[in-house]
Design goal:
By secondary structure, the chain is mainly beta. It has 2 helices and 26 strands. A hairpin with a 3-residue loop joins strand 8 and strand 9.
């Protein structure tokens, strides 16, 4: 198995967020305040989960990947980008059979200048974001690999999401003077219709490779690095819906007054927390929380099931079976990314909970997507 690079600065944390049931503007009283105090929530163990399905991603010598994967899926397509390389997009069918690599970065015909993000379109097509200088291009890629440019955007986007009602959201981070608003909304042709979150950060920021948009029943969650707030986009509105108090791991009060290039060593030594992802489907919400201190990365994964909240604690040095949540499917199963070798080790230790039956033995270790549910009586 290819080992992931040690703590690449796509800093990882996410937090719990309570879903709004309506589309009215959010008042200050409705913003959810949360913390990551050690005793806030009941702690889960492996035995509190049931693995209800597994999808092995077919792996060959030409598509070996590490653990830092960005994965998005639909009923019939799984798209994977290795964030340590970001040089191509790997497509699998819904059962994990490898289809092909698409949207390869290069200078020849049929290639793109850069690969930063992607999203799934209807009819088994993939949309790809390719930024350059202070602009970006959006491409459409068919399952067969055919590449066509949709539009060029006069905005330095780092990530994006296709909106169900049409158009896109783009996130440009804190890159002044090129990005004057951190989020914009466009139509299907890339014409800017709305601007959100004015950017007033004038210091130097390290380049980030982060995912900012995550699916929710009521719209899209938006989060960004070093920001303790989560926002919800719905009905042309982007509103704060959560504030996180990280306690000891809050950023220092002068963080936004200095260059990150100068201050990152200090905050990394002291430890800090920040968001990575949040997913919501029906009555279930999953939030991924990461604390980084030096070379140690700890993670809290929160599960909100109805009115109850549970916590799973994991360290990156563990065998990472339930470490990378990648989404929730329509059956409210949580999807976790792991590898066959990791699953096999847990199957030996906990044979009543885990199994590798049905997973092939191959020359290469390979990613496995677990479909997981919490047990009914916690």
């Amino acid at each position: 198995m290819n080992k992931p690079n040690p703590i690449f600065l796509s800093i990882e944390i996410v937090l719990f967020f309570s879903m709004l049931a309506c589309s009215k503007p959010v008042s200050e009283e409705e913003i959810v305040n949360v913390s990551i105090a050690p005793d806030d929530y009941s702690t889960l163990s492996f035995q509190d989960f049931t693995v209800q399905g597994m999808t092995a991603l077919e792996t060959r010598e030409d598509n070996l990947m590490g653990m830092d994967l960005r994965i998005k899926f639909s009923d019939n397509l799984i798209a994977v980008m290795d964030e340590t390389k970001s040089d191509k997009l790997h497509l699998f069918d819904g059962k994990g059979k490898y289809l092909r690599a698409v949207a390869e970065v290069g200078e020849g015909p049929g290639t793109i200048q850069s690969l930063r993000d992607f999203d799934l379109e209807k009819e088994e097509e993939v949309l790809v974001l390719s930024p350059f200088e202070d602009k970006a291009k959006v491409y459409k890629v068919s399952k067969n690999g055919d590449l066509s440019e949709l539009f060029e955007l006069n905005y330095g986007a780092n990530s994006f999401a296709k909106l169900k009602e049409g158009g896109f959201l783009f996130q440009g981070s804190y890159n002044l003077p090129f990005v004057k608003h951190r989020v914009i909304q466009t139509d299907n042709e890339g014409n800017i219709r709305q601007r959100y979150l004015e950017n007033d950060y004038e210091n130097q920021m390290l380049p980030m490779l982060e995912r900012n948009f995550f699916p929710a029943d009521q719209g899209l969650f938006m989060m960004e690095i070093f920001n303790p707030n989560i926002y919800l986009y719905q009905g042309d509105s982007l509103a704060q819906v959560l504030y996180a108090d990280f306690g000891y791991y809050n950023l220092p009060s002068n963080f936004w007054e200095v260059d990150l290039m100068d201050s990152f060593g200090k905050i990394n030594e002291d430890g800090f927390a920040t968001f990575r992802a949040a997913f919501q489907q029906g009555s279930l919400m999953v939030i991924d929380i990461v604390v980084q201190k030096g070379r140690t990365v700890s993670k809290y994964i929160l599960f909100k099931k109805g009115k109850e909240i549970y916590k799973l604690k994991a360290d990156k040095d563990d065998d990472m079976l339930f470490y990378y949540p990648i989404g929730i499917n329509r059956d409210e199963q949580v999807l976790f990314l792991t590898y066959r070798s990791i699953l096999a080790k847990h199957a030996q230790e906990f044979p009543d909970t885990f199994s590798v039956d049905g997973l092939p033995k191959e020359d290469f270790d390979y990613p496995v997507l677990l479909q997981v549910k919490l047990i009914e009586n916690l």
